[in-house]
């Protein structure tokens, strides 16, 4: 017996940099009755999802599939499958998630070298390339879009330079995939990890990854088949085995590939969600989707500025899906967030580390990235700031946002 | 643009030992719009889920929460958080999943010692206890229910003996939790891992675990806070850090506990599913649920025997939720499975390792464990076996199953 009742979740307007609102079609897909993992109807869906992921990653890589875990499971799967203890890894840090890459690489036993720049900045690509030349790491692990600062690191020169230098690039595109171009092949990136709960608008719980032949070659040197399912030709011992079974990409690709060698039981309902999520992305079209993210970013920024507030990441390297607002002096940022949630059902984000208490972060990602949400968060923020005695330009933010949307003034 | 259409999944009768059919109420719960991970409405649901998991695990442990991954993620989270390289670990193997425990422990750097018995047998508890005395491991890692053989290892003496000897017990109860008693406290087990896609009838993608104060004490010696979120009092360096960030239980308990320290973004929809799944288990009542599993097991066994087929695991240590049927001589087991799937939409399982091609495995787990499913699988199996020229007792299996259900013969 239990006193607990069925789930009664309030309906929120989620304007954080993830997790964001899930497309209702994705929610519906998740209520589909499940299939067995080796049911041909299900393996067909696995293959279709791989095919669509390749398109979203803009790659011809053979391997593009999800890790069954939240976004950081994708980071760890790639790093722990690629890094052998003692391997040199370079991590340029420009926000919280660079620290996460460092943390994971260290736990893999890497000899980690860091570059750091102040939160709010990104690196000059040449400076990173110089450091790669100097350190000569096996792997450069770098974040594409830092949700902690709303900044985006250009990679179009870093990728080709690393390729030339024989350095593997591992890129955290968790926040950017599906919201802005992540050109895996054109930028010559070796392994890229995306996120579901950001611009793909799928619930957290899967991490789509892709990697190329260079990575695959390396994996095969560490490949080891699980004893319980091994056959005669399979190798059971290797020189430096991957330290994780769950994250062993050499085994996972045997499960996602034609051999379909039993590993875990694929997370059926999440796979349904991911399949539907990437299908919706491709139905909208990548370019149209990126343009939509830019449109709502412009309107949100115009509204914030119009209100007389200052932007933290009003820089050429701003990530289009994260807008950081400086908390006005003498205003309690957490009190504002709480009133937004309690009175309007709107969630925006606070911040980490050196920016803690300094900025609010507003996301415009995926399904959350739409006009009514942007207008609602602006109007609610204005009302709540007035309620906190903040000095703002009353009424101007909304008008600026409507202007950005090209809404004509009606004739008298 | 994409040519793929919305998901169109055939509706199957899933009678494998996992994944099994999901309760429609759980499917519906997953289509609930998501909440942010720190939304009070969501953290309340996290706490409620912990509370209900404790009841399902029959424990008063403080810690009972899911790992965001499939079942083996729970095994790896516990083992890699507990095992330091060089630690002695004893694994008694009586089927495929003992090999998996070995595989994971080895990758954690453990000095693994094995006991093996033929597939289809389990260990005499005293023999395990003797071996624990002899090897003096830090950890005994053992499977409770082996879906590969349909056998269940008694643990009621092993647990208390290990406690007395100062050996930590880590138990894989993936297949058994929710279908038969898993008495964490009474059996004095230190860490236990359950599965969602078996007797809980929740989709694969989460792994509920529980562990006690002894394990927690050990975790705290290895605790290390992530740099990106660390505060002054937090330790950044430890002697032997946990080799995984994703599976670091010392960090995960800070996320699930009152500190709510940011780690991953909780897999919202899967948490909804798990909360609803365990709620339904408790609503039915543990004892009633276990009795239901035994009832349908009896009917299925009677039906199989009545048909003139032989059971592989007709033993006192049979797991009630897995019934293994010997494939009759000269019958192609895979052809039978294929006809069941294609003509009836019924899925039963093949087998691994030494049992490959020898047995079919039929699951009666969770929502799949109900009368109409048992009767349907028996009647379909009979028809398909006749279609394969097998010598069976025509019509007798169904009558035996109806007898087992206590269905009276109608008067003329």
UniProtKB/TrEMBL annotation, chains A, B:
Superkingdom of the source species: Bacteria
Ligand binding (substrate): 361
Domain Aminotransferase class V: 41-350
Protein name according to UniProt: Alanine--glyoxylate aminotransferase family protein
Annotated signal peptide: none
Residue numbers of N6-(pyridoxal phosphate)lysine PTMs: 198
One annotated GO biological process: glycine biosynthetic process, by transamination of glyoxylate
Pfam assignment, any one: Aminotran_5
InterPro entries: Aminotrans_V_dom, Aminotrans_V_PyrdxlP_BS, PyrdxlP-dep_Trfase, PyrdxlP-dep_Trfase_major, PyrdxlP-dep_Trfase_small, SP_NH2Trfase/AEP_transaminase
Record family assignment: Belongs to the class-V pyridoxal-phosphate-dependent aminotransferase family.
Alphabetically ordered keywords of this record: Aminotransferase, Pyridoxal phosphate, Transferase
GO molecular function per UniProt: alanine-glyoxylate transaminase activity; L-serine-pyruvate transaminase activity
Cofactors named for this entry: pyridoxal 5'-phosphate
Source organism of the structure: Paenibacillus agri
